[in-house]
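sorry for the late reply, my laptop died twice this morning and i had to redo everyting from scratch. anyway the thing you sent over, i finally got around to it. pasting the sequence first so we're on the same page, its 295 residues, then the predicted structure underneath. double check i copied it right bc i was rushing
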Amino acid sequence: MTDLPVGAHGDAHSDAAAPAAPRPPQGGSQGEAVYLYGVARGLDPAALDQVTGVGGAPVRPITAGDLTALVSTVELAHYGEQALRANLEDLEFLEATARAHHDVVDRAAHAAATAPVRIATIYRDDQRVEEILTRQREQFTRVLDRVAGRSEWGVKVHAHPEAYEAAPDPAAPDGGEQRAGGGAGTAYLHRRQQQRRQHQNAARHIAEQAQAIHAELADHAVATRQHPPQDPRLSGHQGTQILNVAYLLDDEQADGFAAVAHTIGERLPGITVEVTGPWPPYSFIDTAETTPADA
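ok and here's the structure:
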């Protein structure tokens, strides 16, 4: 997103730290702009030391009261509005930018409550970013209150053949496979019907297990967000993914949550539970709330 007429991306690394003379405003020159990654509250600027963002540029803080914008300077030749429109069609460029954006937010989120903004949010200069912090203070504060002292944890649950085999079999139909007046063809049809019922019953049983697992984990969370199952070609996991959920946890609940997830995986045959985190609470922040409309 661009603060017209500028449009570009930026890099991340932090100003080294020690109290030096204030840096002059960045961006604003004919060939540069400012890339905004997110907004943190109560962030120690030292947390950004040695952090780099898009293009390998150093990330620096812009502060207004207790709010800190995470920014870096970018060249309009690569991150200007027209260049960016083309570059975001380049998957390699997009992946590198998204990874750098995430890494900056992740670094800040481990040190203070942090709200990410949309990827490719660009402003003319530091002064414009500071104006945004002041103008949207209430909005940023509301979002940061929601995630302060909390982190996102991801849970992916996979069901393997053993889980389906452990499902209770439906009762066999009365009269056996071969009923009076029936021959081999009738017996074959009955066997196919029985197999179909077993498969349907196993699928229903696994779905019920997924719901029970989610309910058990959700008891420890402030909020949850269901995500679509991942393509196994991307996840690299064997088995069927039956749960892909993000959980927003109070930080003091994280150890207990992980222990419960581990117990579930040991208790249920053919079920594996993968827990990842802590992550910045991307699933629980709508970047439309944090990204100004004029960016």
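Confidence is low (pLDDT under 50) at residues 1-25, 174-178.
thats about all i looked at so far, will dig more tmrw
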